[in-house]
Design goal:
The complex is a heterodimer of chains A (about 400) and B (about 240).
Chain A: E1 5-6, H1 19-42, H2 53-66, H3 68-74, H4 83-86, H5 97-127, H6 130-139, H7 148-181, H8 194-220, H9 227-258, H10 263-271, H11 275-299, H12 304-330, H13 332-335, E2 342-343, H14 356-376, H15 381-390
Antiparallel strand pairs in A: 1-2
Helix pairs in contact in A: 1-2, 1-3, 1-7, 1-8, 1-12, 1-14, 2-5, 2-8, 2-14, 5-6, 5-7, 5-15, 7-8, 8-9, 8-12, 9-11, 9-12, 11-12
Chain B: H1 5-24, E1 40-45, H2 54-63, E2 72-79, E3 88-90, E4 108-115, H3 123-127, E5 133-135, E6 141-143, H4 153-157, E7 164-165, E8 172-173, H5 179-182, H6 189-193, E9 199-203, H7 211-217, E10 220-221, E11 233-236
Parallel strand pairs in B: 1-11
Antiparallel strand pairs in B: 1-9, 2-3, 2-4, 5-6, 7-8, 10-11
Classes of the chains: A mainly alpha (about 400), B alpha+beta (about 240).
Chain lengths: ~400, ~240
Amino acid sequence: MQGVNGFMYPNEVQLQWSVLIVLYPFITGLVAGAFILASLVRIFHVEAVRPTYRLAMLTALAFLLVAPLPLQLHLGHPERSYEMYLTPHRTSAMAMFGFVYLWYLMAVLVAEIWLDYRRDIVIMSQSATDWKRWIYRVMTLGSSNISPRALEIDDRVGWLITLVGIPSAFLLHGYVGFIFGSIKANPWWSSPLMPVVFIFSAMVSGIAAVMLLYMLSARLRKEPIDMRCVDTIARYLFYIFIIDFSLEMLDLVHRIYEADESFRSLDFMVHTRLYFSQIILQIFAGTLAPVVLLGLAQVVKLPELARKRIYGIAGSLTLIGIFAMRWNVVIGGQLFSKSFLGYTTYKMGLITREGLLMAMLLSLLPLFFLWVLAKLLPPWYQEQDAITAAG
Amino acid sequence: MNMTRRQMLVLLPAAAVAWESLLAGTPESSPNYEQTQHWWGMLIDIPKCIGCGNCVRACQSENDVPDGYFRTWVERYHVTDTNLANPEVISPDGGKHGFPAAVEDSGKYFFVPKMCNHCADSPCTQVCPVGATFVGPDGVVLVDQKYCLGCAYCVQACPYGCRYIHPTKRVADKCTLCYHRITKGLTTACCEACPTGARQLVDLKNPKDPIHAFLKTHAVQVLKPQMATGAKAFYNELDGSVR
């Protein structure tokens, strides 16, 4: 059979989960990671990264809005997806997705962003013109009290929400890891480490994404990059990357040393069909290279320009590496037969419902949402000063 | 069309019954079938299977299984003293049209019919996000295709590769143990078509079922026992190399 080596159970030849299911953990990972970066400011008082606080929150929201779309598009019957809310099956790891998602969206992200921007929204609902004024008026939700006492309450509630938000972010992405890690039929997925690896890789990708977006937005807006800020982000990225890499290597070493019944099959797959995406992209280009680059910036005193370039390259490589990791988990987990006797091939469509074009569109959509959100709720601190002046 | 009052009166109740069964979504019912009185499984006697593919063809025509997908299939194992851990296995088109001639050598050849194991602790029903697939009180694993989202999580969770997403219905599909037949007292299509009796539908709750005597006197095994799925497809003389 074309694309098949060895023996596959006949129903296994076609992959069930496509590139869209690769995007799903990638996108939710960015959400969780961006939120954790924002919580550094709010909960852990890392003042150096404050310039990225609001950008991180808006990034998390923009990506979270897109997160369920790849799932919806993948479903055979998307019109029935509401059944997950009405009759969730309690033993299913997947059944909680809708609730975890809604909780994170409404109780954490939207609530916190609203509280954080409330003062600006109220001021803009009075100072903006045309249709914008109406949008801001709606966004005030009828509350225009911005007295110091009211803002103090906002701040306290916002702090509390962030505090709840940190375990929620862990829950959101750790849960995604559990969806894969709890499948005992698939030795490539079945691992108690999976949720932990997912959480740390999420933090890595989210932090890298916000760092890149901050540097890119500063360049587009022709403003200087706050080097103290990006140096601090890069330092955190480096530390978390070390933990993430250690966990992944622990999993790998454990598999190699234990060498259970699935090992020969999986090892062969890694050396053949997954060689480029796993060894080259994920481990060398997407993990070792950025870790070495970020480590270099920690131990050697480099000029500002060199650091900027290193952060730009390391951040981009990180995102490629984490995407490759998601690819290797989702696609890799379906390339081998559960008989451990053969391998199939993933054939990605181009202009199909779950094809390359759709995947690219879904990858760009959060950036469009972020652009709209940034227009409505400017995350740039210079503009906030202007809003304050207008008030 | 001319219709007398008498004909009309005869046709009306029939039309009402048809309409009601259409609304209920259950065109066939089995009023005498008690789910709790049965615990269905399948006995597969490997030495008896000749790899003719009758069962695969019967299943496909009975259940309208789309081409390229299988509710049941047959594998041929070729095991030699050098490939015990890595046997040569083939299943051309699910074994639907039989197998190519075997090459005579020192190894052994045997056929292994595969199907849904109707597991008592089935990992596929565990993961369904809406409970569209379930184990019935009679031990048959079924899918409510009017409720299934088509997420394919169950396909991933089945250790035996027995499920697929139906290409046109876009929902999970699998062996129903010919539920429409067994609830009427018939056997499954695959059992009926098997010329050697290699497949036997068994009811573990029926004390008169010959399976009880068979299990006492034969070396019977299930596939992948380490998965602890409570599989109810029992294989007689299952070779250790079978996956």
